[in-house]
Design a protein that fits this description.
The chain is mainly alpha-helical. About 75% of the residues lie in helices and about 5% in strands. The protein contains ten helices and three strands; from the N terminus they run E-H-H-E-H-H-H-E-H-H-H-H-H. It has a three-stranded mixed beta sheet. The longest helix has about 35 residues. The N and C termini lie far apart (about 60 Å).
Length: about 325
C-alpha cells in the first residue's frame, strides 16, 4: 500500500514508523543501545518491585507509591521499546492501525497516571514531614489505594479522550509516521482534517492534567521546606531532604523530558525524536536508580536480599 491521496482514516489498515533517519549501518548500534536501556529498565523496575514486596520494613505508603511508579515505568516503556527494536531489523517497519491505537492509548494512560501518582507522592511526603503524628491516620491503606486508583482513573479518562480525538481524524496525506512510535503530534501531521479544534482540546486537556499535579507538588514542597528549616536537629533535616530529593529528582526528569519533547518545534523532527527518547526510555531507566542511590532503606533492603540469596546459593 502506498501513500494515500484521498483515503479516509477508516480505510487505513496500517502505518509505517520511520524511526530514526540514520545510515543503515547505525541501526545495529541503535538496537544495542535500546536493548541495553530496556534491559536496565526491566532490571531496575522489577528489582524495585521485588525489594518492596519482600522487605517488611518497606511496607509503608511511600514505598507502596514507589512500587506503583516502578510498575508504570516498566509498562509504558514496554509499550514503546520492543516495537522500536523490532523495527531496526524490519524492512516494512509497519504497525497495524489497531496496534497504533493501542500503543497511543497505553502510553497516554501510563504517562498521565504517573503524573498524578507523583502528585500523590508529594502529598505523602507533605503529611509525613509536616504532620508526622497524624501520618498513619491520614495516609491509611484505604486512602493510599484510593489515590493510586484515582491516578489510574484520571489516566484512563485522559487517554480515552486523547486517543479517540486522534483517531477520528482523516488520514489522507500519508500513512508514514515520522517517529519511532505512534504519538499524537506525528499523527496530526498525517491528517487532512482541520486540526484546530483537536489542538485546542489537547491543550486544554494538558492544562487540566498538568496544572493540578504541579500545584500539588509545589504547594507540598513549600510547606515541606518551611517545616524542615525549622527542625532543630541536623539529622532530621538530612533524612527529610534525602527522601524528598529522590522524589524531586524523579519529578524533574519526567517534566523536564516531557517539556523538552513537546516544546521542540515540528520543523525539527529528529530533535523531537531524541526528546521523546528521553521521555519514553531515559525516565523509566533513571527512576529506580534515583531512588536506590538516594534511599538508605532501599539500599539496606537490597543488601539483605542479596546476602540471603548468596547464602542460599552457597548452601545448595
Amino acid at each position: 500500500m502506498g501513500d494515500m491521496g484521498t483515503t479516509n482514516h477508516s480505510e487505513v489498515t496500517d502505518f509505517i514508523l520511520v524511526g530514526f533517519r540514520v545510515h543503515p549501518e547505525l541501526h545495529i548500534l541503535l538496537f544495542l543501545l535500546f536493548l541495553l536501556v530496556y534491559a536496565m529498565i526491566l532490571l531496575g523496575n522489577i528489582g524495585m518491585m521485588v525489594i518492596i514486596m519482600k522487605e517488611p520494613r518497606l511496607n509503608t505508603p511511600m514505598y507502596f507509591f514507589l512500587g506503583n511508579l516502578s510498575f508504570i515505568d516498566l509498562f509504558y516503556s514496554s509499550v514503546i521499546a520492543p516495537k522500536a527494536m523490532i523495527n531496526f531489523w524490519s524492512e516494512s517497519k509497519s504497525i497495524s492501525f489497531a496496534g497504533c491505537v493501542t500503543q497511543l492509548f497505553l502510553f497516554a494512560l501510563f504517562i498521565v497516571t504517573e503524573g498524578f501518582l507523583l502528585a500523590a507522592m508529594a502529598y505523602d511526603r507533605f503529611i509525613a514531614i509536616c504532620n508526622p503524628l497524624l501520618y498513619s491516620v491520614q495516609m491509611s491503606t484505604r486512602f493510599c489505594v484510593q489515590l493510586v486508583a484515582g491516578s489510574y482513573f484520571c489516566g484512563c479518562i485522559s487517554s480515552v479522550l486523547q486517543t479517540s480525538m486522534t483517531f477520528t481524524l482523516s488520514f489522507c496525506a500519508s500513512r508514514t509516521i515520522d517517529h519511532f512510535y505512534c504519538d499524537d503530534r506525528p499523527l496530526q501531521r498525517l491528517s487532512c482534517s482541520t486540526i484546530f479544534i483537536h489542538k485546542l482540546v489537547s491543550f486544554c486537556l494538558s492544562g487540566i492534567i498538568i496544572l493540578p499535579t504541579i500545584i500539588v507538588i509545589i504547594v507540598s514542597y513549600l510547606y515541606i521546606v518551611s517545616t524542615v528549616v525549622k527542625m532543630p536537629f541536623t539529622e532530621g533535616r538530612q533524612k527529610a531532604f534525602s527522601t524528598c530529593s529522590s522524589h524531586l529528582g524523579v519529578v524533574s526528569v519526567l517534566y523536564g523530558a516531557g517539556s523538552f519533547m513537546y516544546l521542540t518545534p515540528d520543523t525539527y523532527p529528529e530533535l523531537s525524536k531524541v526528546a521523546s527518547l528521553c521521555y519514553t526510555l531515559l525516565t523509566p531507566m533513571l527512576n529506580p536508580l534515583i531512588y536506590s542511590v538516594r534511599n538508605k532503606d532501599v539500599k539496606e533492603a537490597l543488601r539483605k536480599i542479596l546476602r540471603e540469596n548468596i547464602f542460599l546459593f552457597i548452601s545448595v
